[in-house]
Design goal:
The complex is a heterotrimer of chains A (about 475), B (about 300) and C (about 400). With about 475 residues, chain A is mainly α. Chain A contains 21 helices and 4 strands. In chain A, helix 6 (about 90-105) packs across helix 13 (about 245-270) and helix 17 packs across helix 20 (about 415-435). Chain A starts with 7 loop residues before the first helix and ends in a 16-residue tail after the last helix. The relative contact order of chain B is 0.21. Chain B has 11 helices and 2 strands, in the order H-H-H-H-E-E-H-H-H-H-H-H-H. Chain B is about 70% helix and about 0% strand. In chain B, a hairpin with a 2-residue loop joins strand 1 and strand 2. Chain B is mainly α and about 300 residues long. By secondary structure, chain C is an alpha/beta fold. In chain C, about 50% of the residues lie in helices and about 15% in strands. Chain C has 12 helices and 12 strands. In chain C, helix 3 (about 90-105) runs parallel beside helix 4 (about 115-130), helix 6 crosses helix 7 and helix 11 (about 315-335) crosses helix 12 (about 345-350). The chains are: A mainly alpha (about 475), B mainly alpha (about 300), C alpha/beta (about 400). Chains in contact: A-B, A-C, B-C. At the A-B interface, helix 8, helix 12, helix 14, helix 19 and helix 21 of A face helix 3, helix 4, helix 9 and helix 11 of B.
Amino acid sequence: MAQIGVDEWVAQSGGRRDQGTGWRKLLASAEDRVGWWPRLALVVFAGLIAGQLINDVNLQNVAFNGLLYAMLALGLNIAVGWAGLLDLGYIAFFGLGAYGFAVLSSSATGSGGNGGTHLPAIESVPVVVVVAGVVGVVIGLIALRLSGDYLAIVTLFVGQAFMEIVNNIDPGTLGGVNGLYSLDSFHSFGHQVTSPLGFYYLALVMTVALAAILHLLDTSRTGRAWRALRDDQLAASAMTIPVNKLKVMAFSFGAMVAALAGTVFAAQQNTVFPTNFTANILILIYACLVLGGVGSIAGAILGGLVVTIGEQLLSSPNDAGYLFYGLILITLVLRVRPWRYLAAVLAGVVAFGFAARGIVGAISSSAVAGGPGSGGWIGSAVKHYVIVPSSPATYGNILYIVLICALILIVRLHGIRRLLTVIPTVYIAACCWESRLIVNPSITTQIMIGAILIVTMAARPQGLLGTRRVELVDQ
Amino acid sequence: MQEFIQTIVNGLQTGCLYALIALGYTMVYGVLKLLNFAHGDVYMVGAYIGYFVIRWFGGPTSLSIPVPLLLLIMFGLAAGGCGLLGVAMERFAYRPLRDAPRIAPLITALGISFVLENTVLLLFGGEPRSYSTERFISFSTGIHFGHVSIDTVQILIVVVSVGMMFGLRELVQRTTLGKSMRAVASDREAAEMLGINVNRTIALTFFIGSAMAGVAGVMSGLAGIQVANTIGFLAGLKAFTAAVVGGIGSIPGAMIGGLFIGLAESFSASYISSQYTDLIVFGILIGTMLIRPQGIFGRPALQKV
Amino acid sequence: MKRIITVAVALAALTASGCGSSSNNNTTSGTTTKAATANACTTSIAIEGPFTGPVSQLGLEQLDFAKLAVALDNAANKTNVTLNQDDTQLTPSIAVNKTQAVIASPAVAVVGPAGSQEVNAVGPLFGRAGVAFVTGSATLPSLATSGKNPTFFRVVPDDNVQGPQDANYIVNHLKPKAVLLIDDAESYSQGLANVMTPILKKAGITVNRQSYNGTDTGATLNNALSSLVTSQLNASETVTILPWQTASNAQTFGLDAQQQHKKTILFGTDGTNIPSQFHISGSYVSAFGPDISLTKTPLDNSLVAGVAKYGPYGSFGVPTYQAADVVMKAIASVCQAGQTPSRSNVLAAIKTTNIPTAETPLAAVVKFEPNGDLFDHPGYLFKVNSAGKYLSIPNK
């Protein structure tokens, strides 16, 4: 396959990978030998097994959401990853799909909650997807005149306009701010999907089918032309690639995928609201795509799953605790070498903590009177270890600021000094977590999502499964 | 007529604030080709710094120092604090990404924005804070005729932002720092070869841009805008739009773009519909950009082959 | 590459351990709940509210009061109920996800969610699972009357109680020729405005109905509000009705009017009832919850003291205290009857709630209609004096 958009260094990466030894080498060579389609089959198999294994409704919903975001990231990848168009109006097509389905499969067009259109999914979904595709073409035609950040502004307007339209125009049919509820489920040929597990399988089938179609598209003439366009528009047009047509196609294809995801979303939620389609959701989709790796189909799917599962883990205080302490531990394991230093640091953290708590406890007993915020075994493990005063709010806030300063200091320091600073920092992090962060888990979740985004991008800017490529900055 | 003038006054006030934020956007973009979506949150932090300065000096009703001195301290601390925040952002989050794909720093910026907004929520809570400016700078000062009233704060906002824009232009055009900024903007590697300290130049660009956002934050608070942890996002979005409309990378463009959006907003809210304001403003923008795709002051980009 | 593989493996392991632990947790805590309740009345409930996002102020206030209710009732009734938090950000889709999580958890009942649009989205889910949910702020009348939410309860009067009360007060006491009525384009605000408009019109008052985007913030919001003052507020409109979610927006509007030398009496509703933020002298504020800082019963005193450390509060906290209290008392009554709290018996106990006036911070007995509406409750009305203090006044 032609490696367009891959620079020389990357093109040689296969050669360098063979330098690995042991199981890594085995893994890497296995990765090379298995083709794309068997890999997809593996994913399907894993998905089916997971469906059988997960019997908790909550986890089934998480899995569904993961696949939903995977689908959305796949669609966004067409415009952003392949054609290189910064599309900030993508969310409007997701909303268009959801609202389209809601209007065609509910009592919205009837009066007083009765009547209305109740098309089966086999009819409503294609209608909605085609309409979204046409709207995508129209917007793509407008966007043709603009490039780069100007395009971003125009598409941003599309997202904004969608929100204002569903909010304000015809509240009788579109529900206005109250949204539409009691939608039909997905039904066709006398069957209907109602259970969370059913929706999971539906999303699995759709995601896999989408991935297969997109893979064919990616390796086709059109896919190669898109990448040529992304990497150098001028060169592409010089090689008689129809630049304008391709841009419009990318917009329109992305819009269709988003609309498809929207229909499933509406059916699963049973409701649609204008606030489901805000900039925040768009940010999340972008995060999925970029974390997974822009331009990569597998990356988009992985990104969707990782972001959703991560968010789910963070939303429960106990699991967030595991994640918080786990991340600290993993960072230490990865960054502190050799092993004896790591052992010394860990021992140092434990010793430092007990000493600090002992000293503070001896000076004032009320300063250690509060219990840790964590429950479970973490809570009991750190109970006699962290310093938590009886009213921890202000103390926790100060610790939080100290923690940030300490982290900045660590980045600046090197060698043995850095190791020595790590010890109190980890202890401060534990105290801060137990006294402040865990008290408002929802705020902490958002902070951790932000921090994870920053750190991941710094560690691996091309995303988990993306490839490095050289970019021309001047558009 | 009075309504018309008052609408202009409303729009100018908002426009100047957008313009100040947009200046920071445009400078960073000019030098790094980086869309710093966290810029709006720097502005939010500036507004909080001003609030705590007022609290520190006894609160709006019982100030322990004269008002001009208070303003000076507020502007100084907000500019300094936000400037440092900007430098830290650049050093720890953006610098590792300088040669990464363009979309990566965008995600980092969103990450920073999440962290800043929620850190403020964690530390100071969700309730909006008010400067209560009317308690120490009375509404009766300023210019009044009929139903038109232009108060001292509004005059201050216009004077300071226009002054800062001219100062900034002088800085970029005439000083050594400005020259190195322009050099880094046009070709980073060549600038480095010529002995320009690229890292220092970029850090200073961030400092100046963020400091202006801090000043904008304090002025927002003075203008009676409620300070909350969520005010940064929308302001950043509007400023980004302003910068693009004016021609991103251009300093007078950011100023004109900001004023343009502020006025468009107040006129559509006053004369057309307060509900569809965003739609109308964006509609005007898109019209403008379809006619002049490179923005009002932007030069058509030369394509390098 | 080496490092990447290590990171990937480590992440996978972490994710797996996290997932594993979460599911383990649920099952173990579920079983311990059942085992332990026989003697100690141990169980858990959940609260859904907007703890982050644009209206986090409202949500965090609700959270503080709910925590307080759980703590006080646990101590008074010797129960051991834990409160799980689910942040919905006032967004129905998030509320749906969180609700599915709550239904999958061992929680026996729920406090919240905060918004009417959220109740619309999650009510049927709770109904199917048989989980009772008691909200302290969703006031859309159809939530109870539509029949779609069989396990729905609210401890606040709905818009059909509050709207007419407010409108009639304006007609009878303030006697304006014309009013300016601005909604903030949200479910709650439009609901109240829709109820009030016909009553005002019937009394021969000209209603100038406007709307602004309530999700705007900062400079954009200010520009919208001052433009409304400039262009819409005319001399005959001696009353301006602001049924908004955010008190500080009403304060900004009031200051804009003062700055532009326009005279009007502001009339706010629940969301604007935060004395520390909305204190334009001479304004009226109606609320679905009382101002407990003015009354002096022992319960009110303990509530005021209990939330003092959290900062200012408005009209959202007290009803949510009451909502959590209803759930807690229902659980306690189940335990006292010698049963293990389950979703069905807690639901049954909530239906028969009957809390006497002395034991509630609200002004009357807390009982529910069969459809979940609060039984015969008035709204509350305050007037803001020149010092910015709220004085309770009769609303008839």
